[in-house]
Design brief:
This protein is an all-alpha fold. The protein has one domain. The chain contains 12 helices and no strands. Helix 2 runs antiparallel to helix 3 and helix 4 runs antiparallel to helix 11. The protein starts with a helix and ends in a 16-residue tail after the last helix.
Length: 299
């Protein structure tokens, strides 16, 4: 059942990069994220109301939602949307596969869930070599907009890795739908004023295609996807849940090539192979590289 949920989640999130690219034709990145989070929050609070779920209370719980709203909502959503202004949707999906690489490194230091092994270290190295290979043509020309767009996607992966570990620590045992509602609400609190400061959200005139993509992104790729994601975090480990990024890049590259005529050259395919091999090794088991936890959040 966990594997099926992982496959469904990977398919949904792999589609989100295509949808974001479509929406950016008429909408700025911060406005995109604001609409995504606002609609998602409204839908999920309505679902909670229909279920009769009590409103979550307590400073500690809402502090956790504030952290998750930033690390798993407003910040990575904005970084991805901004990054896709300058790079293809397929490249964004591929670079997002660095999430489990960051997660295993952070989890080894901060938790007792996942321990580094020599095979996992090799996987991390291979994964980042693949990312470096993809970025090299842009970086060697200087840190222009394309290189910065790629770095923004990588930074979003780091945010997701931190969020996965923090969520399993602070929100374990919480209702996944309620956690999603708290995350979307607090993410909206961060991004809404920024959208009005840096963009003009009330002046946009999106086409029907963009509106349809926006609704799909909010309802399916956000509400439905995050309920599944929190369910996986509850039932498995942080690294297992972020293994969804093993599926995302393949789906994202294929959809970008089919619907946006994005190029799948040998460099992209080699980078994909290295990243996926790295992620596969990160999932493997073996003798631990070290046995003591330097810092643990599970005290």
């Amino acid at each position: 059942m966990n594997l099926l949920l992982l496959l469904i989640l990977g398919t949904i999130w792999g589609t989100s990069y295509l949808l974001i690219k479509v929406i950016l034709v008429d909408v700025g990145p911060m406005t995109l994220v604001t609409g995504r989070l606002a609609l998602s929050a409204i839908i999920i609070w309505a679902l909670l109301r229909l279920r009769g779920t009590p409103f979550p209370r307590g400073r500690r719980l809402w502090t956790a939602y504030a952290v998750i709203g930033l690390l798993n909502g407003a910040l990575p959503f904005t970084l991805i949307s901004w990054g896709e202004l300058y790079i293809s949707s397929g490249s964004a999906a591929l670079l997002q596969a660095t999430t489990p690489l960051f997660t295993i490194l952070l989890a080894h230091v901060l938790t007792r869930d996942d321990r580094l092994t020599w095979s996992k270290v090799l996987g991390v190295v291979l994964g980042f070599v693949g990312v470096g290979l993809l970025m090299w043509p842009e970086v060697r020309q200087g840190f222009g907009s394309s290189a910065m767009g790629m770095l923004a996607i990588v930074a979003s992966s780091l945010c997701y890795a931190l969020s996965a570990i923090f969520t399993r620590w602070r929100l374990q045992g919480q209702d996944p739908t309620t956690s999603s509602a708290g995350q979307f609400t607090m993410g909206l609190v961060y991004i809404l004023p920024l959208a009005f400061i840096f963009e003009r959200p009330l002046a946009i005139r999106p086409s029907m295609t963009v509106i349809a993509a926006w609704l799909t992104l909010a309802i399916v790729c956000t509400v439905v996807a995050y309920i599944i994601y929190y369910e996986l975090l509850e039932k498995t480990s942080a690294s297992y849940a972020t293994m969804v990024t093993y599926i995302i890049p393949v789906n994202g590259l294929i959809l970008g090539a089919i619907f946006l005529t994005e190029t799948l050259n040998s460099l992209v395919l080699l980078s994909l192979a290295l990243v996926l091999c790295g992620v596969l090794l990160v999932k493997s088991t073996g003798p631990t590289l070290r046995t003591k936890v330097a810092v643990s959040v599970e005290q």
